[in-house]
Amino acid sequence: MKAQDIIIRPVLTEKAYSGIANKVYTFKVNNSANKVQIKKAVEELFNVKVEKVNTVSVKGKEKSRNLKEGRTVGKSSDYTKAIVTLTKDSKPIAFFESLS
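The structure assignment produced for this chain is given below.
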């Protein structure tokens, strides 16, 4: 699996922004990727040194709509979130630095 296939997109929430100062970044990643693959993908894409990777499996939310034909219930997809901590001597990721 290529690095571009592992890292899907950054997670841009208030809690994710609070970790940027401490070199902690959050990404939505491929469900089948493990911590070693995520670490290598981040190091390859952003040219940084990763200290540790924590992963969280996020369950999709149920959503319902009322239509003329009746009520329909759907579900958003499940995904995996990776919280990546960089080493102290590593440079910060430029994409996140431009946001703050």
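Interim note for the steering committee: Residues 45 and 70 are 47 Å apart (CA to CA). The mean pLDDT is 92.
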